[in-house]
Specification:
five-stranded mixed β-sheet; 6 helices; iron-sulfur; binds FE2/S2 (inorganic) cluster; 2Fe-2S_ferredoxin-like_sf; alpha+beta; oxidoreductase activity, acting on the aldehyde or oxo group of donors
């Protein structure tokens, strides 16, 4: 099969039962995405497929042919100049939003997907039901906690993770007001 990962095309022969997570880790040596539960419950394996966050342990690799996969290793490259971290990666560092770091790649990929979901107006269970359905959702701390609730952190770094995401959300909004 052919798979595009972090802007590189890979032609791979594999057992058709291989998950996307195992393909990334075992065949492409992209070990940033972590295997926690291997059952879709912890979010450690989260990557982006066509810009949407997914649990890669639950997807068959062969079903991703023709799609664009971005892992934690490609997050920085996806947004800017060589060597620049993604703003969320930088905010996690600045805010000390990790301890052991095992959940961090999944938290970061999930946060990137979440920002896009909120921008495009996708509601969560805590979103005000009275708002116009196509308006961007304001990412309050409550929204961030709810939207990242599929990503577990055994170290309990949650308060700093929420702060780091909020910092990026606020900067993002300020930048959009300047360019509007
Ligand atoms: S390893 Fe995929 S959700 Fe836990
Ligand atoms: S930082 Fe250790 S599991 Fe989250």
């Amino acid at each position: 099969m052919t798979l595009r990962v972090n802007d590189a095309v890979h032609v791979i022969e594999l057992d058709h039962r291989t998950t996307l997570l195992d393909l990334l880790r075992e065949h492409l040596a992209l070990t940033g995405s972590k295997k926690g539960c291997d059952q879709g419950q912890c979010g450690a394996c989260t990557v982006l497929v066509d810009g949407r966050r997914v649990n890669s342990c639950l997807l068959l690799a062969v079903a991703q042919e023709g799609r664009e996969v971005v892992t934690i290793e490609g997050l920085a490259d996806a947004v800017g100049a060589d060597g620049d971290l993604h703003p969320l990666q930088q905010a996690f560092l600045d805010r000390d939003a990790l301890q052991c770091g095992y959940c961090t790649p999944g938290q970061l990929c999930s946060a990137v997907g979440m920002l896009e979901e909120a921008r495009s107006g996708q509601p969560s269970v805590v979103t005000d039901t009275e708002r116009p359905t196509d308006a961007p959702v304001r990412l309050t701390a409550e929204e961030i906690r709810e939207r990242l609730s599929g990503n577990l952190c055994r170290c309990g770094a949650y308060p700093h993770i929420v702060e780091a995401v909020q910092e990026v959300v606020v900067r993002d909004m300020a930048a959009r007001e300047v360019t509007a």
